[in-house]
Write a sequence for this structure.
């Protein structure tokens, strides 16, 4: 059994405008010592899914299971979850400045977390906190431990959050956009710290990001989310070189390259409202390869014989990768499936409505 096995997770919020399906039937697994990268545009359900696993979403309707070492986290009481959070599963939030309490010294916050889960003295916990700050590359940790969060730079605050998260050697580390708003140099340093911690303690990592460059650096497997559900899952190399879903292809083509003068290719349109999802495939209004069958929502189906590469798209399973040949096969499949030389899903829908 995997260290973490999430099956058919759905999270629905009740709003004045109706039910908002933030996560829809999400399934994935995480092995010990591995890194899973979860990518997608803002609002795709990445953070909500992991926060739900941690028991941090309130007043929502939740279905599915999240088995951690055979125990369903979604059925635990608040007191039982407190024993898991921090000691077994830790989380680094997107904005360390808002995650660290501004009225308390950084060291005090790390010490408090250690003593919440272990019966140790203040002096012992403080000594461990100093060692943790040193291990994540903060200079003069014996002095910095008494600083307030505002006295730390953005990169230092994120390092302090990593130190706090790794204080009890958790089995899983959830990193929610850990490098957002950091410059490239500091971003590389933060990722290096996470990798070093993983190698030292064998920690499994869930990395939530919209930056595919970060995923290329450290992820073993990739889960692509769109409009609350998984649209493609594969190992890192397959995701970058043999992707199947048009949304994954669009994300990759949006990446800037330093060895070409070609303009970026943005994905047409915007993500749909989760209150009013389009019928059929949720990517249908933005897809350049829309077909008649896209009016039916595709399942997350196997693309390779082993079933390790899965995609929620009706395009033929052998239509993968980039390049002119792959693009030609996609166009041919789209035209065969719709009877039109489709330029975009939006254009096709307008033509059919007319």
């Amino acid at each position: 059994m995997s260290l973490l096995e999430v099956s058919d997770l759905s999270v629905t919020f009740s709003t004045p405008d109706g039910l908002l399906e933030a996560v829809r039937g999400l399934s994935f697994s995480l092995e010990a010592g591995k890194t899973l990268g979860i990518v997608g545009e803002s609002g795709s359900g990445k953070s909500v899914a992991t926060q739900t696993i941690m028991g941090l979403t309130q007043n929502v309707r939740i279905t599915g299971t999240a088995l951690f070492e055979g125990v369903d986290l979604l059925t635990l009481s608040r007191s039982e979850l407190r024993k898991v959070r921090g000691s077994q599963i830790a989380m680094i939030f997107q904005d360390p400045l808002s995650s660290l309490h501004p009225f308390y010294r950084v060291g005090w916050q790390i010490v408090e977390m250690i003593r919440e889960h272990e019966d140790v003295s203040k002096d012992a916990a403080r000594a461990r906190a100093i060692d943790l700050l040193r291990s994540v590359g903060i200079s003069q940790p014996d002095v910095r431990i008494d600083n307030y969060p505002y006295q730390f730079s953005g990169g230092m605050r994120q390092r302090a959050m990593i130190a706090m998260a790794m204080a009890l050697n958790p089995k899983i580390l959830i990193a929610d956009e850990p490098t957002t708003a950091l410059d490239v140099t500091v971003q590389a340093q933060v990722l290096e710290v996470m990798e070093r911690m993983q190698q030292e303690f064998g920690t499994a990592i869930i990395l939530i990001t919209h930056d595919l460059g970060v995923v290329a650096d450290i992820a073993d497997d990739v889960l692509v989310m769109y409009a609350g559900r998984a649209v493609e899952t594969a190992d890192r190399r397959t995701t970058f070189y043999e992707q199947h879903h048009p949304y994954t292809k669009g994300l990759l083509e949006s990446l800037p390259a330093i060895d070409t003068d070609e303009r970026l290719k943005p994905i047409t349109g915007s993500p749909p409202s989760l209150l009013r999802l389009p019928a059929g495939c949720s990517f249908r209004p933005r897809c350049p390869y829309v077909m008649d069958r896209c009016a039916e929502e595709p399942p997350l189906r196997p693309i390779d014989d082993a079933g390790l590469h899965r995609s929620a798209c009706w395009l033929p399973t052998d239509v993968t990768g980039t390049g002119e040949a792959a693009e030609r096969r996609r166009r041919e499949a789209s035209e065969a499936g719709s009877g039109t030389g489709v330029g975009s899903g939006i254009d096709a829908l307008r033509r059919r409505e007319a």
User: Anything to note?
Assistant: The first strand starts at residue 4 and ends at 15. The chain has a mean pLDDT of 89.
